[in-house]
Amino acid sequence: MKVTVVGAGAVGATCADNIARKEIVDELVIVDIKEGVAEGKALDLTQTTSILGFDTSIIGSTNDYSKTAGTNVAVITSGIPRKPGMTREDLIGTNAGIVKDVASNILKYSPDAILVIISNPMDTMTYLALKSLGLNKNRIIGMGGALDSSRFKTYLSLASGVSQNDIQATVIGGHGDTTMIPLTRLATCQGINFSKLLSSEQLQKVAEDTMVGGATLTKLLGTSAWYAPGAAGMAVVESIIRDEKKIIPCSVYLDGEYGESDICIGVPVVLGKNGVEKIIELDLNEIEKEKFKASAQAVRNMNQVLFDMNVL
Ligand SMILES: NC(=O)c1ccc[n+]([C@@H]2O[C@H](COP(=O)([O-])OP(=O)(O)OC[C@H]3O[C@@H](n4cnc5c(N)ncnc54)[C@H](O)[C@@H]3O)[C@@H](O)[C@H]2O)c1
Ligand SMILES: O=C(O)C[C@H](O)C(=O)O
Asked: Which residues are in the Lactate/malate dehydrogenase C-terminal domain (predicted)?
């Protein structure tokens, strides 16, 4: 199995590091446009092999996509991150061209590859890749919900004192500060509903902290986060490469599910060797349905920007 990570920056290198350590692929390729950076990160990661005790072959490439030929899964992290005070949506002008270009380069050498899109604004970039390449919807997966759900679990754990590893909690909707929907009503810990562990005010605060989780880190770091995003990217790749059939919230193309069509937005999906193998339709209540509708409208408005920019 072969995985390519495009973008050797903070998220791409962290994702590559996690994939390499897991030993889930025979070959890992890292590509970046900046001369020498991908080769340098690949060599640096390779030199952790004997210390950490894994054995994955890692190669770097400055924009030579012939080295990516035969890729099963490509992770796209190329593009600019936001700075404090910016939204993810502010990145569309720069990142749309980069993602479109990179995705078509991957497909040129690996026509059967499954694409995992991380670059922001992620739901819009996922839609752009799907529409511009005309790929089957099972092969385009936006990574956002996996990360947002892990943040949701962190804040639930901090508020309640129970282990993050015992928590089941899901974030659906757009991967945006105002569009994501942490499903507090459905969050459980070993089968115990969180309404038994936290007050409604505490749950509301957890949801608010989750929604601005990325912005909080961006303010602290001066740029956006990479450890949890890189790990979440790896988890998506792992479920596909190992055909694990894990249920992970991802941005996928909806064709009537959740009452929405012609949009990529976060919902729980089963991920296996064919990419998106099933979309899980949760039994949302009326308030959650309304929130999902509003989130979808905001995501749709950003998709329209792609047409206005003539990238689609
Ligand atoms: N979806 C998510 O959950 C999530 C999480 C974190 C970050 N992100 C997004 O991921 C992207 C990357 O973030 P980062 O912190 O790694 O940024 P970064 O600046 O550290 O790295 C980006 C890399 O992309 C490279 N690049 C730019 N144009 C390229 C091209 N045409 N071809 C190949 N490489 C190219 C740059 O040279 C750079 O090395 C940002 O858009 C960020 O907003 C998304
Ligand atoms: O917050 C960002 O801009 C990056 C990413 O989408 C995240 O949630 O960490």
From this structure: 147-301
Instruction: Name residues whose C-beta falls within 8 Å of residue 196's C-beta, 6 or more positions apart in sequence.
Output: none
175 is catalytic: yes
Interval 90-124: pLDDT, tens: 999 999 999 999 999 999 999 999 999 999 999 99
Interval between CA 129 and ligand 1 midpoint (Å)? 16
Cα–Cα distance between 89 and 93 in angstroms, integer? Answer: 9
Q: Quote the pLDDT of residue 124.
A: 98
pLDDT of residue 116: 99
Q: Which domains does the chain have, with CATH numbers?
A: 2-144 (3.40.50.720), 145-308 (3.90.110.10)
Q: Rounded to two decimals, what is the model's pTM?
A: 0.99
Please answer whether residues 100 and 128 qualify as being in contact, where contact means their C-beta atoms are separated by less than 8 angstroms: yes
Binned at pLDDT 50, 70 and 90, residue 231 comes out as very high
For 94, 141, 144, the CA distances from 272, given in Å and listed in that order, are 32, 12, 18
Q: Looking at 2, 139, 153, 175, which residue is catalytic? A: 175
**255/134 Cα distance (integer angstroms):** 15
Protein residue closest via CA to atom 38 of ligand 1: 9
Q: Atom 9 of ligand 1 has which residue's CA nearest to it?
A: 119
Which residues lie with the beta carbon below 6 Å from any ligand 2 atom? 81-82, 88, 120, 147, 175, 214, 217-218, 224-225, 229
Instruction: Characterize the bridge pairing of strands 180-182 and 188-189.
Output: unpaired
Distance from residue 232's CA to the centre of ligand 1 (Å) = 15
Which pLDDT tens digit goes with each residue over 281-309? 999 999 999 999 999 999 999 999 999 99
Q: What is the C-alpha to C-alpha distance for residues 16 and 59, in angstroms, rounded to an integer? A: 11
Sequence-distant (6+) residues with CB within 8 A of 277 are: 138, 245, 269, 270, 271
